Amino acid sequence: MDGNNNQFNQQSGQSYQDQLLGQFSGQGYPQQPDGQPQQGYYQQPNGQPQQGYYQQPYVQPQQGYYQQPYGQPQQGYPQQPYGQPQQGYYQQPYGQPQQGYPQPPYGQPQYGYQGQPYGQPGQYGYGMPQAPVFDKRAAKKHFSGIGMSYFVFWIVSLVAVYATQLILYIMSVDTKSNYLLMIMSSMLPMYLIAAPLCVLMMKRVPEERIERTRWNFGQILGGFIVAYTLMYIGSWIGSFIGEIIESFYPDAQAATNSVQELVLTGEMWVNIIVMVMIGPVVEELLFRKVLCPRLKAYGDWVTIIVTGLMFGVFHGNITQGIYAFMFGAFLAYVYLRTGNIFITIGYHITANFMGSVIPLLLMNTVNIDGYDEVMATGDAQLVSEFMSDNPEAFALYGLYGLFIFGLIITGIILIIVTAARKRIFIYPGRIRIPSGMRFTTVILNVGMIMFLLGGIFEIFINTFY
């Protein structure tokens, strides 16, 4: 064999090692005898690189993947000394975990998912998070705390109002002849005594922060138009239900809005202070600023419906209760999306101004006593004559009526378009109440039952007595 090798070396003029190196130097096709081109592609004269694939001088690797001289590692991942890891990825010293996912101490779960003790289900399955187990008892306790706080607010308001009126009666103060005193004696005890107590009780109930999002002027204006539209639709529904009740019980006052009648016969500056300034601010702080963050954990739907329900029951009569539910539910949605209590306060102030101050301004331009008498006759000719005697007043009434009508039509269009474009965003909460448990969890607890029963009792008294 050595003789054959020597003969081979003499014919080729190369050593045996050089020939082996030439055979395994990364050339893609078998090499022809010296001086002849390769078969796979055209070969340049001896000593010059190939055109198709640039060929390095003999014993050097091709440029496709740079090859180090024989006996040295490739440059793609330089080879470390024996016993050390390659540079393809960083390897910790022997016995230490890799950097991709740091390994916790022995006996603790991996970071990929939170492992449970042996024999218990893991918190995550196949890398996907699982919803936490619903604790119905804790949820009912949460809603009961909310209901109890507002029940105390309701009962303390009644006690404070009746106590104030009793004191004024003992002092021989006639509140019926003094509109300001009558309003103050019924509103101030609720706002100054009952409301702060409710806030203190609600501090014990856990809350979640509502993120603040900036709305532009168009969004704020469109939101108010929708809010006023829902309030007006609710007022129509409440009046319709009240008229049905009065058809069966003629002595009932279900369709009567006592607050509206009080406003139309009251003093304007008192309405501005109490109905437009103090009332909306206190109610928004109680039913949006305080209540919504403590319902947010259970999702937007729960927050919107519960807030609207409690706000409607709080008003104490059917006509107000229906539109207060719809108005309050939408204000809760606005507060969830913006986190800005000043927007909802502005909506509430503007709605009360349009419902209490502007009608009073218009009524002051008309002979109210004469108007009521003429309308009570039902004689079309007398009504026409009365309107002709007060053309400016009825012209203003007509313009304001057209404005309200246009506002409501615009609001209905906005609601339809927004819903069609799927721009109404309702998000689930951190805690999801399973289907079939929502009513029993949210309503059937001690606090909520007491609050709702108290509100329904007040509605019943105001309707039939």
Q: How would you concisely characterize the structure shown here?
A:
The protein contains 15 helices and two strands.
Structure description:
By secondary structure, the protein is mostly helical. It has one domain. Helices cover 59% and strands 1% of the residues. The protein has 15 helices and two strands. The protein has helices at residues 2-12, 16-23, 136-170, 179-202, 217-248, 258-264, 268-290, 300-314, 318-338, 341-363, 368-377, 380-389, 391-420, 438-442, 446-464, and strands spanning 124-125, 128-129. A two-stranded antiparallel sheet has the order 1-2. A hairpin with a 2-residue loop joins β1 (124-125) and β2. The radius of gyration is 42 Å and the shape is globular. The termini are far apart. Mean pLDDT is 78; it is low at 2-13, 20-28, 58-62 and 111-128.
Computed structural class: mainly alpha
Report how far the terminal alpha carbons are from each other.
126 Å
Average pLDDT over all residues: 78
Q: What's the tally of helices?
A: 15
Main beta-sheet annotation:
2 strands, antiparallel
- Contiguous uncertain segments of 5+ residues: 2-13, 20-28, 58-62, 111-128
Radius of gyration: 42 Å
What spatial order of strands do you see in the largest sheet? 1-2
Strand content: under 5%
